[in-house]
Amino acid sequence: MNRRFLPITILVIIGVLFGANILAQRSDPGSPEHYQSQAGGASTAIDEVVKFDLEIELTDDRELEMYYWRDREGKARANLEHWDDRDRDEESARREIENLITNLPPLTTKEPLTIIQATLDQLEISQDELEEFDLEYKLADGFTNKIDLEVNDVDDDDDDDDY
Question: Which residues partner with 145 through β-bridges?
Fold first, then answer.
């Protein structure tokens, strides 16, 4: 090899190695650049959902209530009460709830913790903030489910067996 091409060859090799290193860091699945839900998979089509009632209470007493249902004509209706106190008309509430539903795993799953985790992920709620989670839904084929989770029952005065 000619000596005058040696510095150019070394610079090209360094550039290729540097570029490969950057690409390897970007494609590393262990360090995602964006938030990824731990619960993934297929979703439920929105036209399959007849009723979807979600109530979440956080440890700091903030609450979220989402109600979605179909009226007798089959029109989707919605009501959303969010701790941010932002006024939402029925249309924006419907879109927000439909977005949540379509980003959840199939509601027919036999894995309630998967649905809870996916819901928390979509709403950007940390598990350690959660005090109560109540979800009840019905699908067009008649499938119904209710998921209730209460965390840290020590503040509940109705039950004297708390330790």
Answer: 137
